[in-house]
Amino acid sequence: MALPETLAELRDCIATQHEQLTGRLRDAARYLIDNPHEIALNTVAELGKRSSIAPTAYIRLAQALGFAGFKDLQRLFRAPLQQAADTHSERIRHYGGETLLEDPSDVGGILREFSQANIVSLEHLAEGGEQANIEAAIAHLQGARTTFVIGMRRAFPVAAYLSYALSRVGRRTVHISGAGGTLPEQVSAIADDDLLIAVSFPPYANDTVEACRQARQAGVTLVAITDSVLSPIGQMADTVIEVNDAELLGFRSLTASFCIAQTLAMGLAFSEWQSDSNFSHDRLKDIDC
Hints:
Elements: H1 7-17, H2 23-34, H3 36-41, H4 44-51, H5 55-64, H6 70-78, E1 90-94, E2 97-101, H7 107-126, H8 131-143, E3 147-151, H9 156-168, E4 173-176, H10 183-188, E5 195-199, H11 206-217, E6 221-226, E7 239-242, E8 247-248, E9 251-252, H12 255-275
Parallel strand pairs: 3-4, 3-5, 5-6, 6-7
Antiparallel strand pairs: 1-2, 1-8, 8-9
């Protein structure tokens, strides 16, 4: 296998070799993916302290992925970084790299740079790398008795929209909100012929992860919309749709995530229109999604 030369290639390499890695090396790989800034800017000893993972685990991981040592792997994380000329500058993360925001107090600058970062993430989606996974998710939707959708914290609006859109195209859908502390009861209502779609991104809502674990134990099919196949819900899922939205400090976009939700709903609607002679194409004109 060729040595990864970009962060995107490194993520693919980790995903490919994930099953061959030991549990500790998987933990180190997960930390690499979730904390690119820390990987780029800290020594392996400091990373060990910050992550509570032995420094030797990072060294062994680098070697397992084909690098001579950790420093060679670390160069991939340092390459996208641009040197900040202003001590008040911040970086906007997006798929494939970073964008430097020189003055975070400049609202116009935030709009321009964040919009551009979102464009990069959408262009990545448009390349079609997730098409097979989206098609697999639509097949799961078609075969499910009822579709349950869960997404907490920042993922909540994506889950709410997706459940609404699926309902509008004729799919029996339940939005799991956990209102009134009823999350366990809502999840327990899912049967093994139903489908659970879970939406979650770092730092991953504990309620979503627990709901997925409970559903999987009951034999429920799981589709995950998340940032990586190595995420807590990605590792449990039958199908994973990877999304990498733009991020500035704790503020993360949902642009690409909503694009996935719309594609799932529209893909399901048109698939059923083509396969069902009684389905009216005119009905989609008033779908209001």
